[in-house]
Design a protein that fits this description.
single chain, 134 residues, alpha/beta, Signal recognition particle alu RNA binding heterodimer, srp9/1, 2,3-Dihydroxybiphenyl 1,2-Dioxygenase, domain 1, 2 domains, four-stranded mixed β-sheet, 22% helix
Length: 134
């Protein structure tokens, strides 16, 4: 088995796709007006409209209601990303300034326009880097 993607359901695919293109530097593939994918080497971030959920079952996912999952991106330098993000017009809401965590990662938390929590992290310790070398 291979973990392939995470899909975020939203009321505004264009807004959320544009946000993630801006903060990641990855250009989205637009498969339809109601679905986009940002393909990265580790995983794909899919963005689907609330209307697509009728194909799965009404109410199966509720846009803008996430308060438990964190979308995590491995970055080269958390502090440089913090500077870049905060310089963007209408920059994202910063939840946690760059902080070194007890498990060896440097982490920056912010929210996307739908309120989903995003973590940019850089492993600092040898142990943290080893965990990613699987």
């Amino acid at each position: 088995m291979r973990f392939a993607s995470v899909r975020v359901i939203t009321h505004d695919v264009d807004r959320l796709t544009g946000f993630y293109e801006q903060v990641t530097g990855v250009t989205a593939r637009r498969l339809t007006d109601s679905f986009a994918e940002l393909v990265t080497p580790g995983c794909t971030l899919a963005i689907g409209s609330a209307e697509t959920m009728t194909l799965f079952g009404p109410g199966a996912a509720v846009p803008e209601a996430n308060r438990s999952a964190i979308l995590e991106f491995l970055v080269e330098d958390v502090d440089a990303e913090h500077e870049r993000l905060t310089a963007l017009p209408g920059h994202p809401e910063i939840v946690q300034q760059p902080t070194t965590m007890p498990w060896g990662n440097r982490s920056l938390l912010f929210r996307d326009p739908d309120g989903n929590l995003v973590n940019y992290f850089t492993p600092l310790s040898a142990e943290a880097r080893a965990r990613l070398a699987r």
